[in-house]
Structures are given as C-alpha cells and as structure tokens.
Design a protein that fits this description.
This protein has 398 residues and is of the alpha/beta class. The chain has helices at 17-33, 52-65, 86-100, 115-129, 188-196, 199-210, 229-232, 239-257, 284-297, 304-316, 339-351, 357-360, 363-373, and strands spanning 7-8, 11-12, 43-47, 68-73, 105-109, 132-137, 143-145, 152-154, 164-170, 175-181, 214-224, 264-269, 330-331. The strands form four sheets. It has a seven-stranded parallel β-sheet with strand order 5-4-3-6-11-12-13, sandwiched between helices. A two-stranded antiparallel ribbon has the order 1-2. It binds 1,4-dihydronicotinamide adenine dinucleotide (NAI).
C-alpha cells in the first residue's frame, strides 16, 4: 500500500516501514562511524527498546559493542491495510540488521509492567545468554497496571500547587498561544509516580537478580530529565518531576541491592528531544524548537543516537569512574544546560510569537523530527512506492 502520514492532533496514526528501516540504518551508521566502544557491554537488556532513547540504547550496544540484545517493548503489530506502530517497524529493522551482522537479538512485545513479561524475559536470558551485564530502563508510558494490586494508574502532566500559564506552539501550524494548565488534584501525583517513578525499575532488577541473570558487575541505567526554568512548573516541579525524583532516588536503592554482585544503578539526565512522549507536553515543543535552533547554530545539537553514543563512550564505559553530578546523576544534558545555550533560549523565549517563530525557532527541525518518528521524510526513501505493511519481527513468532 502507499503509506502517508495521517495526523490526529499530536499523534500520527500511520507509520512507514521502509522509512523506519532507514531511520534504524542511519543510527547504526552513526554508531559504527565512531568505531568500537572499548570495554562496552556484551549482553544487554533494554526495557522500552523500540523508539526514542531505548532504541538508540539498543543500537549503540549492538553496533558499538557487538552486544547481544534482548529488547522489550509494547507496540501494535500490523494488520492487512493497517500499519503497525513505529516501534514495531523499528524493531523489525533492528533485528534484521543485527542478525545480518551476526549479532544475537530477540524481542518481546508485551506489557513490561507485568510479571509475565518479566518472567518471559528472564527465561530468554537464561536459556540464550545466561546473564546480562547492562539493563537499560527506558519506558515512557501514560498508564501502568500494577502487577500486585491490579489497579490501572494513569500519569498526568500537571503543575503542583497552582495554575500554570505560559506560551506554547502548535507545531503543525506554527501558532504560538498562551496555555493554562490546572494544577494536580488528589491522586494525580501518586498515580504519576506509580507509572513513571522507579518502582517498576526496581521490580525488574529484583526479579532479574533473584533469577541469577545479572552478571557480576552489572550496570543498570534509567533516563531522567531536568530542563530549564520556563518548563519547570509543568515538568520538573510538576507531577512528572515527582516521578523523576522517585526514579532518581530508586537508583540509590538499587545500587545498595546490587552491592554483593558489585553492580551499580545510574540515572542519566538526557537532553530534551522530540519523541512521541515529549510532543504531548504543553510548552515543551516551543522550548525544543528554540533549543534546537540555538544548539544547531552553536554546533551542539544532538538527537537520541548522538546522546546515547556519548553516554556509552564518555560516561558509562570510559574504563574509569563514571562521572556524576553532586546528586549522583550522569549528565548528558550538559550541552543543553550550558549557560550560554540557556541564556540564548531565554532571550528567544521572551520574544517568540507566531510571526517570528519560523525565523527565531527551528520549527521546521521540530516538524521533521516528528515526522521522522513515524518513518516519514527520510532521504532515500520513495514514499510514492508501494510498501508492504505486513512486516514481521524475526524473533517474534506469528
Ligand atoms: P518513547 O515514547 O520514544 O519510548 C518509550 C518506550 O517504552 C517504547 O519502546 C515503548 O514501546 C515502550 N513502552 C511503553 N509502555 C510500555 C509497556 N507498558 N510495556 C513495554 N514497553 C512499553 O520515549 P522516550 O522519550 O525515549 O523516553 C524514554 C525515557 O527517557 C523516559 O523515561 C523519558 O522520561 C526519558 N527522557 C525523555 C526525554 C525526551 O525529551 N524525550 C528527555 C530526557 C529523558
């Protein structure tokens, strides 16, 4: 079928398999162009492996360090005449490339919050790899069914304690407007922490350790965000920020539990980037378009693959101590948070409006990244050609 983007609000309902494969290939090429990661990971589990930072983590492990990878994700498979979600096509392409390169790669498509998927993952590691030496936890989900209580929790993106108003942009139209978000109500903070905090990460590590599938000296890393003062009320000091506080605190608890196998848990604070998750947060798209413009002009711009490649090579696997901030966090958002970058973005923020945004912000870069998430607008892909939507992931039985 001919596959075109079909937008509904801030989501795209279709995805392009050939474009997704191109995206994966581009990321692989980027990592390979930097050569092999000395002392890199060899057997890696990525939870949330199909898009964004998790996909980049899987690609960097495999193609930067020849690692065997197990990927867990929650994606919709295709049906005749109906495309899969992008992460399905990304994972299919990843496995094809990994297998062609002689690398072990298996995937599990299911709810990572459930006991069943954890058990399935453990069984695969036990039978195929024995143990893993790196566990990347990169889930971004709006809901979590708690495996013990059965309760379905929903996360929300709200300020805490007061109404928040600021500028935002509809990146489809370029219209800058004022958005007002009502503060969190009873239960919102708790629910958001339950979905996006560290409890499930700790459950994964407990289950893996108990099953004996964590190698001596194993590392685990989860991803967090801080960001600037303009997004603070809705992000870091909002409900999602509470979840990130919890995630960051959980790293210390996990590290304690891993002491007997000399393991260590880290949180890496990453850069703001266009992903399915971030485009749904008001204010963030405007910030990102000003940030992209500024960082591109300064020659500092990175996407997910550049971020994770740098995380592995210059933070996690330098062969020495992992550099962390005063709160024990890895900072790969260091370039985003540079004083000169933030000063420029604040200056642009103050004057951004519908008339000048195309010029002072990188609206086009934002838009292209968004389309890219769904496999559209890649160079070298013929979008007018018939594409087969019925793509299989090699390791997943039909
Ligand atoms: P994403 O939406 O691209 O990826 C989310 C992944 O989680 C996908 O692989 C998806 O299939 C998987 N997933 C979601 N629910 C699942 C479930 N129930 N079971 C199994 N898999 C499930 O998100 P992104 O942006 O890469 O986020 C990953 C982490 O990075 C999050 O913790 C996020 O807060 C963090 N982060 C994101 C930043 C951004 O600007 N996008 C910045 C800094 C940190």
């Amino acid at each position: 079928m001919i596959i075109e983007p079909r937008m509904r609000g801030f989501i795209c309902l279709t995805a392009h398999p050939v474009g997704a494969a191109q995206s994966v290939k581009n990321q692989i090429e980027y990592v390979k162009s930097h050569g092999e990661i000395a002392n890199g990971p060899k057997k890696v589990l990525v939870v949330g492996a199909s898009t964004g930072f998790g996909l980049a983590s899987r690609i960097t492990a495999a193609f930067g360090s020849n690692a065997a990878t197990v990927g867990v994700f929650f994606e919709k498979e295709p049906a005749e005449g109906k495309t899969a979600t992008p992460g399905w096509y990304n994972s299919a392409a990843f496995e094809t490339e990994a297998h062609a390169a002689g690398l072990y790669a298996k995937s599990i498509n299911g709810d990572a919050f459930s006991n069943e998927v954890k058990q399935q993952t453990i069984d695969i590691i036990k039978s195929d790899l024995g143990q893993v030496d790196l566990v990347v936890y990169s889930l971004a989900s709006p809901v979590r069914q708690h495996p013990v209580t059965g309760v379905l929790h929903r996360s929300v993106l709200k300020p805490i304690g007061g109404v928040f108003s600021n500028k935002t942009v509809d990146f489809h139209t370029g219209k800058v407007s004022e958005v007002t978000i009502q503060p969190a109500v009873e239960g919102d903070i708790e629910n958001t922490v339950t979905v996006m905090g560290g409890e499930d990460w700790a459950m994964w590590i407990d289950a893996l350790k108990e099953a004996g599938v964590l190698a001596e000296g194993a590392t685990t890393v989860a991803y967090s965000y801080i960001g600037p003062s303009v997004t603070e009320a809705v992000y870091r000091k909002g409900t999602i920020g509470r979840a990130k506080d919890h995630l960051e605190a959980t790293a210390f608890e996990i590290s304690d539990k891993l002491k007997d196998i000399n393991g260590k848990a880290y949180v890496s604070v990453n850069k703001a980037l266009v992903t399915q998750a971030s485009s749904a947060i008001p204010v963030i798209p405007l910030y990102i378009s000003l940030l992209y413009k500024t960082m591109k002009e300064m020659g500092l711009h990175e996407g997910t693959i550049e971020q994770i490649d740098r995380l592995y090579r210059e933070r996690l696997y330098t062969g020495g101590e992992v550099p962390v901030d005063e709160q024990g966090r890895i900072r790969i958002d260091d370039w985003e948070m540079r004083d000169d970058v933030q000063a420029k973005v604040s200056e642009l923020w103050a004057k951004a409006d519908t008339e000048n945004l195309a010029e002072i912000g990188d609206l086009e870069g934002y838009r292209k990244d968004f389309y890219n998430l769904f496999g559209f607008e890649f160079e070298g892909v013929d979008y007018a050609a018939d594409a087969n939507e019925m793509v299989n992931i090699e390791s997943i039985e039909k």
